[in-house]
Write a structure and sequence with these properties.
Blueprint lengths: L1 E2 L2 H8 L5 E7 L2 E5 L2 H14 L2 E2 L11 H16 L21 H4 L2 H9 L4 H11 L5 E3 L5 H8 L7 E3 L4 H9 L6 H7 L4
Parallel strand pairs: 5-6
Antiparallel strand pairs: 1-3, 1-4, 2-3
Length: about 190
Amino acid sequence: GVFCPDETLEELMIGSGLCLAARNGHALSTLSGTEEAIDRFQDLLSEEGWAWQRLPSAHPYHHQELLAPIREKLQDLLSSVCLQAPRIPIFSTVTGQRLSDSEARDPAYWSRHLLETVRFADAWQSLAQLQPLYAAVELGTGQTLRSFVASLGADSKTLLDGNGGDATIGGLWTLGVEIDWIQYRKARGLP
């Protein structure tokens, strides 16, 4: 992970052999490339005074050149799956916009996820522009996405840990989200 404004990072990356793997938040990006290219770039970042943290990864995810050989295989595999349009709105981290029905059904679109920059910040900003958000709930381990969203200016009181069980439901309720209490009780075996 690199903590550096986008414009500066782009200038520093020229000729580095690295790709922008993810644009996660304000001045918060992830790069992808060979071990050697990453080592050289870490030295450059340190010399320039920018903060960075090496992320463990077995593969150069989102590096178009290095992963291009497997794109077709992935696309063929995805062609064997029955892809359908979403029932609820999904915001694409490939385009940064709302996922279209045709994209959702296109194996080529999904294979792009492996090779192209993850545009989390763009997708979040598109979502936030279209509808008012009561809360964002992170499902999974850690607080990674919540830190990204916080860097984009979201109110930290609206960023909830989805693993909190009753505390998460209580947090949503206090933020004004309508809870289906009958379904909630049923799911917990309560009268």
